[in-house]
C-alpha cells in the first residue's frame, strides 16, 4: 500500500507540474519524462506559422494543441507538430516489438471556433484544409542512428486521418502494395521515398479515426518484416504522433486531448501463441 501511494506521488510530481508552455520556433520542443512535444515547423517556406501549446496536465500526458496556417503554393508539408513517446526500451528491434498500443483522441477544427472537421476524408467543414493526422516512426539498422533525426534509413508512417486531396502518402501513385485490417480500421500500404534518402512505408487508414483505443501498431510493423520489406533486426528508434500541416489559409487548431502509448516486447516463450512482456 505504502509503495503504491509513493509511486502515485512520484508520477504526479514528474508530469503536469508546469505552467502552460507555447512553442513557436522551428524546432522548439518541451520534454517531460514520458513524452517530448515538438513544434517541428521544419519547412517554414512561404506564408504561415505554427505554434504548439502544452497545457499543464494531471497525468503522464499533457494535453496539447497546435494552431497553424500555411497558405503558400505549391501545397506541401510545412510542419509536423507532434508528441514523441520517450520509451526507455527504444531503440528496439522491430522483430522484438510485441505490441505498441496507442490510445488517443484528437480534433482538427477551425481555430475561430467552428468544427470539428474530423468527420470526413474530404473537406467536411468549410475550411480548405490539407493535412493528415499520423504516426511517424523512424528506424535504422544502427541503434544509435535510429534516433538521429533525418539520418535514419527507414520512415514508417501510420495515417489515421487525411483531409483534402493533396495529403497523400509517398508512393501513392504506385498504388496499394498491401492491406492489413486491425480492429479499429483497415490500413493500405504505400511505399515511396521522401527525397531525403529515407524509404517510406505508409499505412493509410481507409476511414478517419478521431479517437482510438489500444490501436496496436505492432502488426503493421511485423507485416513489413513478414513480407521481407524490412529486416527484423531494424531498430525502431522514434515514435511520434501529430499532424502534417500542408495547407490552410485560415488558422486551424489540432488538439490532442488524450494520449497513451504502451510498448510490449516479444517474450522468450515464442510458442504458437505470441507472448508479450509489457515494458511501459
Ligand atoms: C499544474 O497542475 C498541478 C495539478 O495538476 C498544480 O498542482 C500545479 O500548481 C500546476 N502548476 C502550474 C504552474 O500551473
Ligand atoms: C485550441 O484548442 C484548445 C483545446 O480545445 C483550446 O483550449 C484553445 O483555446 C484553442 N485555440 C485556438 C486558438 O483555437
Ligand atoms: C470558422 O468559424 C467561424 C465561427 O463559427 C465562422 O464564422 C467561419 O466562417 C469559419 N471559417 C471557416 C473558414 O470555416
Ligand atoms: C552506429 O552509428 C554510430 C553513429 O554514427 C557510430 O558511431 C557507430 O560506430 C555505429 N555502430 C555500428 C555498429 O556501425
Ligand atoms: C493491445 O491492443 C490489442 C488490440 O487492440 C489488445 O488485444 C491487447 O490486449 C492490448 N494490449 C495491451 C497490453 O493493452
TrEMBL record:
<dbReference type="GO" id="GO:0000272">
    <property type="term" value="P:polysaccharide catabolic process"/>
</dbReference>
<dbReference type="InterPro" id="IPR013320">
    <property type="entry name" value="ConA-like_dom_sf"/>
</dbReference>
<dbReference type="InterPro" id="IPR002594">
    <property type="entry name" value="GH12"/>
</dbReference>
<keyword id="KW-0378">Hydrolase</keyword>
<keyword id="KW-0624">Polysaccharide degradation</keyword>
<comment type="similarity">
    <text>Belongs to the glycosyl hydrolase 12 (cellulase H) family.</text>
</comment>
<keyword id="KW-0430">Lectin</keyword>
<dbReference type="Pfam" id="PF01670">
    <property type="entry name" value="Glyco_hydro_12"/>
</dbReference>
<dbReference type="GO" id="GO:0030246">
    <property type="term" value="F:carbohydrate binding"/>
</dbReference>
<protein>
    <submittedName>
        <fullName>Concanavalin A-like lectin/glucanase domain-containing protein</fullName>
    </submittedName>
</protein>
<feature type="signal peptide">
    <location>
        <begin position="1"/>
        <end position="19"/>
    </location>
</feature>
<keyword id="KW-0326">Glycosidase</keyword>
<dbReference type="GO" id="GO:0008810">
    <property type="term" value="F:cellulase activity"/>
</dbReference>
<keyword id="KW-0119">Carbohydrate metabolism</keyword>
<dbReference type="InterPro" id="IPR013319">
    <property type="entry name" value="GH11/12"/>
</dbReference>
<keyword id="KW-0732">Signal</keyword>
Amino acid at each position: 500500500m505504502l509503495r503504491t501511494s509513493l509511486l502515485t506521488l512520484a508520477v504526479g510530481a514528474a508530469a503536469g507540474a508546469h505552467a502552460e508552455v507555447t512553442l513557436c520556433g522551428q524546432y522548439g520542443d518541451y520534454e517531460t519524462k514520458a513524452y517530448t512535444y515538438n513544434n517541428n515547423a521544419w519547412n517554414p517556406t512561404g506564408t504561415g506559422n505554427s505554434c504548439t501549446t502544452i497545457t499543464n496536465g494531471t497525468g503522464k500526458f499533457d494535453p496539447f494543441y497546435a494552431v497553424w496556417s500555411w497558405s503558400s503554393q505549391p501545397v506541401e508539408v510545412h510542419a509536423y507538430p507532434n508528441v514523441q513517446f520517450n520509451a526507455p526500451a527504444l531503440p528496439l528491434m522491430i522483430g522484438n516489438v510485441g505490441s505498441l498500443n496507442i490510445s488517443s483522441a484528437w480534433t482538427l477544427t477551425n481555430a475561430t471556433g467552428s468544427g470539428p472537421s474530423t468527420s470526413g476524408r474530404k473537406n467536411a467543414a468549410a475550411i480548405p484544409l490539407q493535412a493528415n493526422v499520423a504516426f511517424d516512426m523512424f528506424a535504422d539498422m544502427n541503434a544509435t542512428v535510429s534516433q538521429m533525426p533525418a539520418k535514419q534509413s527507414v520512415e514508417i508512417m501510420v495515417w489515421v486521418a487525411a483531409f483534402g486531396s493533396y495529403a497523400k502518402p509517398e508512393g501513392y501513385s504506385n498504388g496499394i502494395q498491401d492491406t492489413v485490417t486491425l480492429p479499429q480500421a483497415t490500413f493500405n500500404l504505400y511505399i515511396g521515398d521522401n527525397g531525403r534518402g529515407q524509404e517510406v512505408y505508409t499505412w493509410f487508414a481507409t476511414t478517419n479515426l478521431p479517437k482510438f483505443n489500444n490501436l496496436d501498431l505492432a502488426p503493421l510493423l511485423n507485416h513489413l518484416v513478414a513480407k521481407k520489406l524490412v529486416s527484423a533486426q531494424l531498430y525502431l528508434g522514434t515514435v511520434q504522433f501529430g499532424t502534417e500541416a500542408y495547407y490552410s489559409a485560415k488558422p486551424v487548431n489540432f488538439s490532442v486531448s488524450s494520449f497513451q502509448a504502451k510498448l510490449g516486447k516479444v517474450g522468450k516463450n515464442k510458442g504458437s501463441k505470441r507472448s508479450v512482456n509489457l515494458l511501459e
